[in-house]
Amino acid sequence: QAHFMESGGGLVQPGGSLRLACVASGNFRSTFVIGWYRRYPGKKHEWVAGIGGEGSVWSNYADSVRGRFTISRDNAKNTAFLQMNDLKPEDTADYYCNLLPPEDHNWGQGTRVTVSS
Fold first, then answer.
1. How crowded is residue 67: how many other Cβ atoms within 10 Å of its Cβ?
2. Residues 9-68: pLDDT tens digits?
3. CA-based nearest residue to 28, from 61, 65, 53, 47
4. How many other β-carbons are positioned within 10 Å of the β-carbon of residue 65?
5. How would DSSP label each residue in the chain?
6. Could you tell me if 49 and 66 are in contact, meaning their C-beta atoms sit under 8 angstroms apart?
């Protein structure tokens, strides 16, 4: 199975930016589609953004983040990124990466993003 380790979260003021990173390991291939997800307390994981595997130009975003978040990946380093701009308090959540569609046994520890003044 694939393993994911997320980093880059923190406390930021509304309107600020953060860049999250996700390093994949284990049974992972650069051709796999990757997604970023977030989870609010007591809720299930919510899809945020997705990016195609090596050789693909596909990407897509949830309506709530479209135009503010940008997903990218560095296949040579098995790393995916989520650039988050114009952050809002409602973006406060734990952020995770996983395959798309996600596999339950692949969830990592996540990284916490808090947007507050």
1. 9
2. 999 999 999 999 999 999 899 889 999 999 999 999 999 999 999 989 999 999 999 999
3. 53
4. 21
5. -EEEEEE--EEE-TT--EEEEEEEEES--TTS-EEEEEE-TTS--EEEEEE--TT---EEE-TTTTTTEEEEEEGGGTEEEEEE-S--GGG-EEEEEEESS--GGG----EEEEE--
6. no
pLDDT at 106: 86
What span, in angstroms and rounded, lies between the C-alpha atoms of 67 and 117?
22
| Amino acid at position 112, single letter | R
What is the spatial distance between Cα 47 and Cα 85, in angstroms, rounded to a whole number?
17
Tokens 């990016």 identify what position? 51
Residue type, 56: S
Q: β-strand 111-115 against 10-12: which pairing, if any?
A: parallel
For range 66-80, the mean pLDDT: 96
Q: CA–CA separation, 51 vs 34, rounded Å? A: 6
